TrEMBL record, chain A:
SMART domains in the cross-refs: DEP, G_gamma, GGL, RGS
GO terms under cellular component: cytoplasm; neuron projection; plasma membrane
GO MF: GTPase activator activity
Protein name: Regulator of G protein signaling 9a
Naturally occurring in which organism (per UniProt): Fundulus heteroclitus (Killifish)
Domain DEP residue range list: 34-109
Coiled coil: none
Domain of life: Eukaryota
Keyword list, A-Z: Signal transduction inhibitor
Domain RGS: from-to ranges: 274-389
UniProt record, GO biological process: G protein-coupled receptor signaling pathway; intracellular signal transduction; negative regulation of signal transduction; regulation of G protein-coupled receptor signaling pathway
Family matches, as InterPro entries: DEP_dom, G-protein_gamma-like_dom, GGL_sf, RGS, RGS6/7/9/11, RGS6/7/9/11_DHEX_sf, RGS_DHEX, RGS_sf
């Protein structure tokens, strides 16, 4: 039984495209043709002789001939065949390239072809590390000792099965003749070299090193989540005033638009669930901004928003954005200086020398946590929020008769055109930009002085 | 001894017998699926032949018989554990067998799917199809494997005989069996503990010294008048006797 996670599989740094690979399959099959295919020879070993060894130069010549391309192109194609595991080298088996000389290669059995889409599972890694111990199966898979022990722990419930399978495979191999045994071992080893976990890939290492949470804790968290959200789920609880998909009346959508004056009660309640909810609902974010303005601590949120813009913005504007952010938030004595710890500040400033999309990630997370742990709770207790809760609308549930439902269906409108919405957004942004210009304390003080 | 005590002992003894029977069947299943995997690995290669395909079918049928028998018996064993009072070790041993069985079935199922794909990709209906088989260097060493499968014995082979399904139905049947079994028996499979050590020394066999791949791939290299034994895999890049795979 396999414990599967629902996480995206970031450990795989390539995604085999079945459609393209099927074409490669066809080409490799053509290479087998006894008349027009690649000419094979034999590999002489001390213990036996194995047929069907082909030289690199023969392969490249055949590819160049068949596809009518240059030798360089053919060599590149050949290297691709080796990298994807259709052909494996017999000498220098760790280096997956095709050399245009007399070095020997052999075809891989179709069982191990990438079109089989056999994503190696944890138990397969376990089996491989047992089967190739003398070859340092660990090195084959680029595991370190600590990873192997962790794999043993992680797969503890299946370990007996893995050992049994490995033993059986080993014993079955002994029943075959020598040449076939060598070939089969070579094939499996070649497969593992092609499909080993990426070296020092941080996501894979994290996956192996992931700490385990007690099921009581995780189940408790799940129950808490369900209890808070179950009244907000449109499948489990009725939407107020009515679910537009069922009643064809779009009051629910108009009441919950982005820039509505007075939000609904359910929406306001959702803001209190978590800081993340508050920030992602843009109407909530506006409310939070009003609160922060009263407290004169808007720089954290402004920095967070600026970092988001950097992450999601265009590549050409990145360096200019990074500069403005540095001048506004991070430079010593900046007008909206954010208060983050020295280490993060140092790392961020250093990273800004060569800005990329995620250069502010650490600082942004730090600021998010600051807001979440401190400002968010103050907001929930503040008069701003409590007023909003009182003002919030609680629409009456609609009660449509079938005749009215039919009329609703007839009167369906296409809604507001997206261009109009976008124009409204731009106007609002322009207004906000002028209104939210950094409160330059010095200018204010000098104005007061001048007035005196 | 009271009659109740005697009946409890009888029950325990019977359960232990059933458990040993299931354990032997599990070993047999492991052997059969492992052989099946090696057979399927030769599909589409130069060792492919109608003999191979027949062997695959027979192995599959044998695995099917073992699977259905073993699943019934394990179900009975585990539900008996629930109803009657059992020792903790007995229950743990049964759960361990259960997890091993399900892992083996999952593994077998993935090999079955691959076999179906490969048979579809490399049909052997006409002589001309043989031209497209991949020259992998394997000739015909599968007789040993076939003999190995034939030696497998399961306790209930004689008693029950039902027709074995064809490949597609077999896959569908196994999938439904897996989901059904996982729903019917609530076994926390992460609580099963391994009995084998982490560094499995099971493969070290003093009788057969020439085992490792590097030894077999040695090639005599004559250079500058003196002959040196060099591994064929890493020519000239290593010191010659410890080929790091």
């Amino acid at each position: 039984m396999t414990i599967r996670t629902a996480r995206p599989n970031r450990g795989h740094h390539f995604r085999p495209r079945t459609h393209c690979l099927k074409k490669v399959d066809a080409i490799v099959v053509e290479m087998q043709d006894p008349k027009n295919g690649v000419k094979g020879s034999e590999q002489k070993l001390n213990v036996t002789t194995i047929p069907h060894a082909i030289t690199g130069s023969n392969i490249i010549a055949w590819i160049g001939n068949k596809m009518k391309t240059t030798t360089e192109e053919a060599q590149a194609f050949g290297t691709m065949l080796v990298a994807y595991g259709y052909i494996y080298p017999l000498q220098n088996h760790k280096k997956l390239v095709m050399c245009n000389d007399s070095s020997l290669y052999r075809f891989q059995t179709p069982y191990f072809w990438p079109t089989q889409q056999w994503v190696p599972e944890d138990s397969d890694y376990g089996r491989c590390s047992i089967l190739f111990p003398t070859c340092n199966g660990l090195e084959l898979l680029c595991f370190k000792q600590a990873h192997y022990n962790h794999l043993h722990e992680w797969l503890n419930h299946k370990w007996d099965f893995i050992v049994m399978q490995a033993t059986e495979q080993y014993k079955a191999g002994r029943d075959r003749n020598k040449a076939d045994r060598v070939v089969f071992d070579c094939q499996e080893r070649a497969y593992w070299i092609v499909n080993r976990p990426p070296v020092s890939n941080i996501f894979y290492q994290q996956a192996i090193m992931r700490s385990k949470v007690k099921s009581s804790v995780s189940l408790g968290a799940l129950v808490k989540y369900i209890t808070s959200y179950k009244n907000h789920d449109p499948f489990l609880a009725p939407c107020l005033p009515s679910n537009p998909w069922q009643s064809d009346h779009d009051a629910y959508w108009t009441l919950n638009m982005r820039r509505v004056e007075v939000p609904t009660k359910m929406r306001v309640e959702r803001w209190s669930f978590s800081f993340f909810e508050l920030l992602t609902d843009l109407r909530g974010r506006d409310d939070f901004k009003i609160f922060l303005k009263k407290e004169f601590s808007g720089e954290n949120l402004a920095f967070w928003e600026a970092a988001e813009e950097l992450k999601w913005g265009t590549a050409s504007s990145m360096s200019s954005k990074a500069e403005t952010i540095f001048k506004t938030f991070l430079a010593p004595g900046a007008p909206r200086w954010i208060n983050i710890d020295g280490r993060t500040m140092g790392l961020t400033v250093k990273g800004l020398d060569h800005p990329h999309r995620y250069v502010l990630e650490a600082a942004q997370t730090h600021v998010f946590m600051l807001m979440k742990k401190d400002t968010f709770f103050r907001y929930l207790k503040s008069p701003t929020y409590k007023e909003m809760q009182k003002k919030a609308l609680n629409p009456e549930a609609h009660n449509f008769s079938p005749a009215q439902l039919e009329e609703n269906a007839r009167n369906r409108s296409p809604g507001i055109h997206p261009i109009i919405l976008w124009q409204q957004e731009e106007e609002e942004k322009a207004k906000a930009a002028t209104a939210a210009a950094p409160v330059d304390v010095k200018a204010v003080m000098s104005k007061i002085d001048r007035k005196k | 001894m009271s009659r109740w005590r005697r009946s409890v002992d009888e029950l325990t003894a019977r359960r232990r017998r059933q458990h040993t029977e299931c354990a032997r069947a599990q070993n047999a299943l492991s052997r059969v699926t492992s052989c099946f995997q090696q057979l399927v690995a030769s599909l589409g290669s130069s060792a492919d032949s109608s003999f191979l395909r027949e062997e695959i079918d027979e192995t599959r049928a044998l695995a099917h018989r073992i699977c259905s028998g073993l699943s019934d018996r394990l179900l009975r064993l585990l539900s008996a554990c629930d109803s009657a009072p059992t020792a903790v070790e007995d229950r743990q041993a049964s759960e361990r067998l259960w997890v091993l069985f399900l892992s083996a079935v999952e593994n077998f199922l993935s090999d079955l799917r691959k076999a179906k794909d490969l048979i579809g990709q490399f049909p052997l209906t006409q002589r001309s199809n043989r031209r497209s088989l991949v020259n992998t260097g394997c000739t015909d060493g599968l007789v040993g494997l076939a003999a190995r499968v034939a030696l497998v014995q399961i306790p209930w082979l004689v008693l029950e005989e039902e027709p074995s399904p064809d490949l597609t139905n077999h896959i569908a049947g196994l999938e439904s069996l897996l989901s059904e079994l996982q729903q019917r028996v609530p076994v926390a499979f992460w609580s099963v503990e391994a009995t084998q050590p982490a560094w499995a020394e099971v493969l070290s066999d003093p009788e057969d010294p020439e085992d490792s791949l590097e030894d077999m791939m040695e090639v005599e290299m004559v250079s500058n008048g003196s002959s040196r034994k060099v591994s064929a895999c890493c020519q000239g890049t290593c010191c010659g006797f410890s080929c790091v795979g």
